[in-house]
């Protein structure tokens, strides 16, 4: 069973940067499409960024586009979300999610900001941006 672990959250001032990381013990995330989601207090979980499995094409929610970069570290077998110029409304719990696998058939195509696209979820990491 794939278990995802997020790290890198914390408290940062408005305009600051954070780098979130998603990893899984004993699994190579290069075989999975990965999504990052944010759940702000009292709000629904929403997609922020995702990266496809086959061609590593990234997709961003409009609010974070230009301020965030999702990328794979193939050596470490992790997926990171680099966020800069953070704003107070970026505050929330950030989750990584995965779908696919080395032997997945069929192989998921692309990635998505939809919760239902993903089979595996981490426990989340808190990001708080102060004004």
Low-confidence stretches: none
Tell me the span between the first and last alpha carbons: 40 Å
Largest beta-sheet characterization: 7 strands, mixed
Q: Which structural category do the helix and sheet elements fall into?
A: mainly beta
Helicity level: under 10%
What sequence of helices (H) and strands (E) makes up the elements? EEEEEEEEEEE
Descriptive tags:
131 residues, mainly beta, seven-stranded mixed sheet, four-stranded antiparallel sheet, 47% strand
Task: Describe the structure in your own words.
0% of the residues lie in helices and 47% in strands. The strands form 2 sheets. Strands 2, 4, 5, 6, 9, 10 and 11 form a 7-stranded mixed beta sheet that branches. With 131 residues, it is mainly beta. It has strands at residues 4-7, 10-13, 18-24, 32-39, 45-51, 58-60, 68-73, 78-83, 92-100, 120-121, 125-130. The chain contains no helices and 11 strands. It starts with a strand and ends with a strand. The radius of gyration is 14 Å and the shape is globular.
Short description, anyone?
This protein is mostly beta strands and 131 residues long.
Question: How would you summarize the topology of this molecule?
Answer:
Elements: E1 4-7, E2 10-13, E3 18-24, E4 32-39, E5 45-51, E6 58-60, E7 68-73, E8 78-83, E9 92-100, E10 120-121, E11 125-130
Parallel strand pairs: 2-11
Antiparallel strand pairs: 1-3, 3-8, 4-5, 4-9, 5-6, 7-8, 9-10, 9-11
């Amino acid at each position: 069973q794939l278990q995802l672990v997020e790290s890198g959250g914390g408290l940062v001032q408005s305009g600051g940067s954070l780098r979130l990381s998603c990893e899984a013990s004993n699994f190579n995330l290069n075989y999975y499409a990965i999504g990052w989601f944010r759940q702000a207090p009292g709000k629904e979980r929403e997609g922020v960024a995702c990266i496809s499995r086959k061609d590593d094409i990234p997709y961003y929610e409009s609010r974070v586009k230009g301020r965030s970069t999702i990328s794979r570290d193939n050596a470490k077998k992790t997926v990171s979300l680099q966020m800069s110029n953070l704003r107070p409304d970026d505050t929330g719990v950030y989750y990584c999610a995965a779908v696919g696998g080395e032997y997945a058939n069929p192989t998921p195509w692309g990635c998505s900001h939809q919760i239902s696209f993903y089979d595996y979820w981490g426990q989340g990491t808190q990001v708080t941006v102060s004004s």
